[in-house]
Write a structure and sequence with these properties.
The chain is 32% helix and 28% strand. By secondary structure, it is α/β, with parallel strands linked by helices. It starts with a strand and ends with a strand.
């Protein structure tokens, strides 16, 4: 469960989050929406413990994501909008993920295969040099292979073709029970069958929170 209480975050004189409060429960599947600059990314990064709040707090399953970050991140999978510039080969990356996050390599391969990404043919390729679609497929495979109760996707289908998008949503439907899914998206029509809640942000505030 994610509890956000009176969360405020400033960057200089700019107020990015203005006393935001919400509770995201186990089993919730949420579309987080709003225009660019609405505060969505700041909220996500605060949940992940990247930012120290200027006011209020975030608790993940009762734990502070800054003070207890290692424990918190064990239970979260996150796929960013822009894949990170990782220079490791796929084989090295999978080994690192396996050791650092206790993720079974065979589960990564399984989900990569379900996303139509041929892992075995690309093991020695640098992640950095993969196409945008291949990077996204691998990150999605890792997020599903990691047994997290919270999965956060920031525009997850931006680099995927229509067939890969279908595969992604099919896999999520099979794995959504007892998880908190949070989608930052501009495509509500794509996730409408998956979500039971829509949160809309504007000017650093939650302006609507609708449960379907």
């Amino acid at each position: 469960m994610i509890e956000v209480t009176n969360l405020t975050k400033k960057f200089g004189s700019h107020l990015s989050l203005d006393c935001v409060s919400c509770t995201l429960k186990d089993g919730d599947s949420i579309a987080l929406m709003g225009a660019n600059g609405a505060g969505k990314t700041t909220l996500i990064r605060s949940i992940l413990g990247y930012y120290h709040p200027d006011g209020g707090e975030v608790l993940i399953n009762g734990q502070n994501p800054i003070k207890e970050r290692t424990n918190v991140l064990k239970d979260i999978s996150f796929v960013p909008q822009l894949p990170p510039p990782i220079k490791l080969s796929i084989e090295e990356l999978m080994h690192y993920i396996s050791v650092s996050a206790d993720v079974d390599k065979e589960r990564i391969k399984y989900y990569a295969n379900e996303m139509k990404l041929d892992i075995n043919e690309n093991m020695n390729k640098s992640f950095f040099k993969l196409s945008g679609g291949m990077k996204q497929k691998l990150l999605i495979a890792i997020s599903l292979a990691k047994k997290s109760s919270i999965i956060i996707y920031d525009e997850p289908t931006a680099n995927l073709d229509p067939k890969a998008r279908d595969d992604f949503y099919r896999l999520l439907k099979q794995n959504k029970e007892q998880k908190t899914l949070l989608f930052v998206t501009h495509r509500l029509e794509e996730v409408k069958e998956l979500v039971n809640r829509q949160i809309y942000m504007d000017m650093g505030k939650i302006v609507s929170d609708e449960i379907f």
